[in-house]
Amino acid sequence: MSAKLIQGYEVVIGFETHAQLATATKIFSRTSTAFGAEPNTQASAVCLALPGTLPVMNRKAVECAIRLGLALGSHIAPRSIFARKNYFYPDLPKGYQISQFEIPVVQGGAVSFYLGDEQKTVRLVRAHLEEDAGKSLHEEFHGMSGIDLNRAGTPLLEIVTEPDMRSTDEAVAYAKALHQIVTWIGICDGNMQEGSFRCDANVSVRKPGAPLGTRREIKNLNSFKNMQQAIDYEIRWQIEQLEDGHAIQQATVLFDPDTGETRAMRSKEDAADYRYFPDPDLPPLVIAPGWIDEVRAQMPELPRAMAARFVQQYGLPEYDATTLTQSQAMAAYFEDAAQACGAPKLASNWVMGEISRRLNQEEIAMEAVKVSSRQLAQLIGRIQDGTISNNAAKQVFDALWSGAGAEVDAVIEAKGLKQMQDTGALEQIIDAVIAANPDNVVQFQAGKDKAFNALVGQVMKASKGKANPQQVNDLLRARIAGPATPS
User: Fold this and answer.
1) Within a domain: residue 487?
2) Which among 239, 268, 291 is the end of a domain?
3) Looking at the 3D structure of the chain, how many domains does it have?
4) End residue of a domain, out of 234, 260, 291
């Protein structure tokens, strides 16, 4: 795989992503997974593995794993097993984490995405089910740490890639593509700030053709911006170390967004350090072929398939189709508007343009859009039938977005935005503008287009913006195409 070199070094990146599954209860108990509860109010006896308790598998969590496997073209193991991953940390109440090691439920598969015009594919090693640990709290305490065990036992899918990425941009694009998939198929809400989608980046550098370098794992990257900055810094740091003659030590590191630097947290463990062994309280997880067929029948149309359909069905450019399928909400909004107005390219332009600009400006999600797809379709229809100009359409859109009007036609009427339909009246305005601007007429006839544009502007001003710009262009050009008449 060819890649751009940095100071003569090739970058190698792999990802481990923890996606919190969209279940109402924890993976091995009926304890709630709701976010934001008071600390330690959602930690049951099963979560803590108190004597006499037994874990019971959450069927919905398994279904989420099946959905991911189907979406990514993975092998879904008909039989997988759970293991105990042993380590001691204050927020791990059991002293071990129930996870999968030797036989994960999802094996192989790939995530494909575009980086610019180039399609990239990152291979997956596995995705396995496991429980989350608790959370250590440092900010609220002085000289000590608090422990909140509400997250303990929350169901996760850990999605592990091959070391296939060769740049920071590629790594971030992969993370965004995976985020899109898990939210699209409804297995994760994708809220990075709440920890629902946490990425660990394994970064190393090497000279081209050399064996893989020693990797350092950047933990818990909770935004794409932080991800970009952290990996960029880590690459520069590792190259500087090697250039100075130092060896890279395998380690787990944290990214500090305040300083923009990574810092070592602890030496990195290998699998043997965790002393995995099969969990004696959990039988093997057996997934019948019929269950996989049931889940497959319920799967939504996937983003890449939908984008391809938008190109075929609506004649959209690939760029438009890919942009519109970034979320199900945006794709559904576009399709509703396109079908209602019969002008898919115009609908695409408005969704990617004015709609997206307003959403970004107000920092709201597509689900909270303030102009319905029906209203947008009506607005586009009034542009197409010549009722309003493009400039007037933006005024109507502003009114709809602000809640100043509910119906497109009512806003047009109230604001007096209808274009002139009386050709005779428009011709009178044009004749008056020509008479008042003879120099511009002469300049246009001498080949100066700016003079023509000035005349168009004068006509639009005289009509108070109600003239149809195309009609103005046609009539005006017909009037002054010949030699100027001496006054």
Assistant:
1) no
2) 291
3) 3
4) 291
User: The pTM is what?
Assistant: 0.84
- Do 464 and 441 reside in the same domain of the chain? yes
The verdict on residue 4 lying in a domain is no
Reduce the secondary structure of the chain to three states and give it as a string: CCCCCECCEEEEEEEEEEEECCCCECCCCCCECCCCCCCCCCCCCCCCCCCCCCCCCCHHHHHHHHHHHHHCCCEECCEECCEEEECCCCCCCCCEEEECCCCCCEECCEEEEEECCEEEEEEEEEEEEEECCCEEECCCCCCCCEEECCCCCCEEEEEEECCCECCHHHHHHHHHHHHHHHHHCCCCCCCCCCCCEEEEEEEEEECCCCCCCCCEEEEEECCHHHHHHHHHHHHHHHHHHHHCCCCCCCEEEEEECCCCEEEEEEECCCHHHHCCEECCCCCCEECCHHHHHHHHHHCCCCHHHHHHHHHHHHCCCHHHHHHHCCCHHHHHHHHHHHHHHCCHHHHHHHHHHHHHHHHHHHCCCHHHCCCCHHHHHHHHHHHHCCCCCHHHHHHHHHHHHHCCCCCHHHHHHHHCCCCCCCHHHHHHHHHHHHHHCHHHHHHHHCCCHHHHHHHHHHHHHHCCCCCCHHHHHHHHHHHHCCCCCCC
86 and 130, same domain (yes or no): yes
Kindly give the confidence (pLDDT) of every residue in the chain, 487 residues in length, as a single tens digit, with 9 standing for 90 and above.
Answer: 346 788 899 999 999 999 999 999 999 999 999 999 999 999 999 999 999 999 999 999 999 999 999 999 999 999 999 999 998 888 999 999 999 999 999 999 999 998 888 889 999 999 999 999 999 888 777 888 899 999 999 999 999 999 999 999 999 999 999 999 999 999 999 999 999 999 999 999 999 999 999 999 999 899 999 999 999 999 999 999 999 999 999 999 999 999 999 998 877 666 667 899 999 999 999 999 999 999 999 999 999 999 999 999 999 999 999 999 999 999 999 999 999 999 999 999 999 999 999 999 999 999 999 999 999 999 999 999 888 888 889 999 999 999 877 799 999 988 888 876 667 777 788 888 888 888 888 888 777 778 788 888 887 787 777 777 777 787 788 888 755 444 4
* Same domain (yes/no): 98, 191: yes
Domain with residue 470: its CATH number is: 1.10.10.410
Which range marks the domain in which residue 358 is found? 301-415
User: Are residues 146 and 174 both part of a single domain?
Assistant: yes
Provide the token pair at 382: 């009034």
If asked whether residues 58 and 149 sit together in one domain, one would say yes
Whether 201 and 218 share a structural domain: yes
Residues 450 and 384 in one domain: no
